[in-house]
Design a protein that fits this description.
The chain is of the alpha/beta class and 455 residues long. The protein has 2 domains: 215 residues, D-Maltodextrin-Binding Protein, domain 2, CATH 3.40.190; 198 residues, 3-Layer(aba) Sandwich (D-Maltodextrin-Binding Protein, domain 2). It is 38% helix and 11% strand. The strands form 3 sheets. Strands 1, 2, 3, 6, 10 and 11 form a 6-stranded mixed β-sheet that branches. The chain has a 3-stranded antiparallel β-sheet with strand order 8-7-9. α10 packs across α12 and α10 crosses α17. The longest helix is centred in the C-terminal third of the chain and has 16 residues. It is globular, with a radius of gyration of 21 Å. The termini are far apart.
Length: 455
């Protein structure tokens, strides 16, 4: 298959020069699996052969699903459940919330958990297991699906105390900067290939009377998480992947000088009042701007660059073309230290069950299957680490590029560190710390406070 121009652009930044495989979703088994819910990757479309094993045992049952996925990203997700509902007679009751991380433990403690939750942080999954003993281990058939079609690291991420609790759902690439190709062309700007190039471009935009960056940390009870992504990206690019691993495992303290360096490097961009926050306010406005709105000023030339993951494409709105020659597109966030190559930061979600009814186990197994991952890919705005889903099955150039990056055996890929840290650090102190930091707290007092929160 010929490499698309988008993927050529990735190759140009030298990803292939990166060294070891840390997380890849390709190679190995060919995915021809006839375990429960596995096998056919035809994307559904009304083909009910996958559901023959259930007979009529699911007819009339219902399962509740709870996640962080809210409008407009929830529409294709809910559409991906339709085939299972039509073929089995089961009803899926879906609820998305931007207060998910705070509300899920409350629901568990109150005795009314959802049947299934789509959890975006392995650290939160571990907390729910260790603190509440609330998660049901993964059914054997679901584990077989994952072993057949995913890199083994995705089982490691969903394992707590040697027991497997969370099956992989979606995946994403975070190392992107969104921009307007037409605006860049109009102003004579070129996509930067190094961090120094990116800073020089930012300075040029300022000299031309523009504001180079816009950002938003707002996300309900999860406010602050986009800032953690920035720090994680820079930790990979300055300290390197080995130190990054030591950091999220707390083998070095959170206030280690290398972490301070990463914060200060991010501050050179996000705390620079000449660089941000185009179309939205001053530096402090980053804390109150919802992340969904953080990049939209690009469409009005009020800013020119916005760091956000592949899934951000859902927020551009109807009529906005996301393509290399379209209204908006994304380039790779460049490396800083050539010795660290071009690392990739990513994330993903995991499906965990809180009740053990047969219909719940059946649906969790289906969500781990080749069939569902192909079905979900066909609905758009989604990337899977399932290695049976071909790159050209995805609906957009950004998703295709993301899938190829995840599947590249040369990629040095690291999972989002805050998602891997204990929940009281990664999804509480780190998030809160980023808000305090962007609104005036110093780097040192911020990293000291997060270090003090480590259990």
């Amino acid at each position: 298959m010929a490499m698309s121009s988008a993927r050529k652009g990735w190759a140009a930044v030298g990803l292939a020069a990166s060294v070891s495989l840390v997380l890849a979703a390709c190679g190995g088994d060919d995915g021809d699996d006839d375990t429960a819910g596995g096998g056919d990757t035809g994307g559904g479309g009304g083909d009910c052969a996958f559901a023959d094993e259930y007979g009529d045992e699911l007819d009339g049952t219902s399962v509740t699903v709870y996640s962080t996925i809210v409008p407009p990203e929830d529409a294709p997700l809910e559409a991906s459940f339709d085939t299972f509902e039509e073929c089995t007679g089961m009803t899926v009751v879906y609820e998305g919330s931007d207060e998910f991380e705070a509300q899920l433990p409350v629901r568990i403690q109150g005795g009314s958990p959802p049947d299934l939750a789509i959890i975006p942080q392995p650290g939160l999954l571990a907390t729910l297991v260790n603190d509440f003993d609330a998660v049901i281990p993964v059914p054997d058939d679901a584990r077989a699906n994952v072993e057949a079609s995913f890199d083994p690291s995705w089982i490691e991420y969903g394992t707590v105390n040697d027991t497997y609790y969370g099956t992989p759902f979606g995946a994403n690439v975070k190392s992107f900067v969104w921009y307007s190709p037409s605006s860049f062309e109009e102003h004579g700007y070129e996509v930067p290939e190094t961090w120094d190039d990116m800073i020089a471009l930012s300075d040029q935009i300022v000299a031309d009377g523009g504001m180079p960056w816009c950002a938003g940390f707002g996300s309900g009870d999860a406010t602050g998480w986009p800032g953690t992504d920035w720090v994680e990206e820079v930790m990979l690019r300055t300290a390197g992947p080995d130190v990054y691993d030591q950091w999220y495992k707390h083998e070095i303290p959170f206030n280690d000088p290398q972490v301070v360096t990463a914060f200060d490097t991010v501050g050179d961009v996000l705390k620079n009042d000449q660089y941000v926050n185009g179309g939205l306010g001053d530096v402090s406005s980053i804390a109150t701007t919802r992340f969904e709105d953080g990049g939209l000023p690009i469409l009005q030339d009020q800013c020119f660059m916005h760091h956000q993951a592949s899934f951000y494409q859902a927020n551009w709105g109807d009529g906005v073309e996301v393509a290399e020659d379209g209204d908006v597109f994304a380039f790779y966030l460049p490396g800083i230290d050539p010795a660290q190559g071009n690392p990739v930061l990513g994330g993903g979600e995991f499906v965990a069950a809180f009740t053990e009814r047969p219909e719940v186990q059946a649906f969790q197994t289906y969500l781990s299957s080749d069939h569902w991952h192909a079905e979900r890919a066909s609905k758009g705005n989604f990337v899977s680490a399932n290695k049976t889903v071909p790159v050209d099955a995805y609906d957009s150039p950004v998703n295709q590029l993301s899938a190829e990056i995840i599947q590249d055996p040369e990629a040095v890929f690291r999972f989002d560190a805050s998602d891997l840290m204990p929940a009281e650090v990664g999804t509480v102190a780190f998030w809160t710390g980023m808000v305090n930091w962007i609104t005036g707290a110093s780097t040192q007092e911020t990293v000291d406070a997060i270090e003090d929160a480590w259990p």
